[in-house]
Amino acid sequence: MLMYFLLDDEARDSRPSTSEVPSRRSKVGSSQGIGIKSSTIHGSYTSLESIVNNVKEVRVGDLFPSKEELHMKMQLLSIGNHFQFKVKKSTKTLLVMSCIVEECKWCVRATKLKDCESFRIRKYSPDHTCSLDALHFDHRQASSKLIGHCIKSKFERTSQCYRPNNIIDDIKKQCGMTLGYNKAWRAREVALGLARGVAVHDIFYKCSKAYRVVEFNQIIAQIMGTDASVAQYLIEADPTKWARSHFDGRRYCIMTTNIAECLNGILKDARELPITKLVEHIRGLLQKWFLERREATVAKMSTLMTKWAEKKLRCRSNKSCCYRVHPINLYEHHVIDGYLNGFVNLIEKTCTCRKF
């Protein structure tokens, strides 16, 4: 829910007149004359969510913890006052914004303070001299990231289903903006990440790709520290079905064991055939696939192996330069790599690291 648009007229009128930014068409002088002594420090924000929930007017001298928070604050103000702006210049130490209409005098200039990440507004001209025609229904400041921060609370309850169409309807009702489906979807993804966490997803991927059981246990412990319920769910889901370290067979670098679903999609119509015809159809498909891929590969190959295999071998060759190899017999070797070690069997083509 966009908190700023829930503010009623009475709440807006109750703000102090000294720090109030005039409405889009009001005729007041520039705020450049306001001294730095009257500055407001916006240092109580602990996250971007705080900006969404604490929308106040700005003036010269206001201080923001970061450039990103200042930019989001101006986005909210522009949506509430029905105008649009563009970033004319953005560097590590400077942020300059102006109205999308070139002739308009509205502008904001902020600079970074020395030895910190805070930005202070040095110049602010609230006067708009442009026409109302400059405003479009699809507001450029209503980014998916901004909307995602505002609707985060909608996804904190897992029982509630909040779809992109619901976001489009709510934004239309509350602020009169026509939001596209793609932007609503991206906003939903941002909100989901903020409410439920993106970090666990990244850690889970590392956990599924780990070769050693010891490494798997270390990553599971990290997930447990982040979200115990997620860790419990993964353990109950049986690691032998999704974790490389616990899988008994050979995956050949493929992270799924449900290849049957791919064939089911291809054989959707052929499944109605008699069994002998179905088997012949599958044989013909496989023959065609292998022929096409072999011809395409041979045409592109300039070495004995494919480019993918050559790249892998070169990378592993560079890494193995520092390995220490101690032969046990003709076919078995003890390989030491820094803090790790493994036993390689050339006959069985295996290694205790489980990667080879």
Automatic annotation (TrEMBL):
Record InterPro entries: Transposase_MuDR
Domain Transposase MuDR plant, residue spans: 58-121
Natural source organism: Acer yangbiense
Annotated segments matching region Disordered: 13-35
Protein name, per record: Transposase MuDR plant domain-containing protein
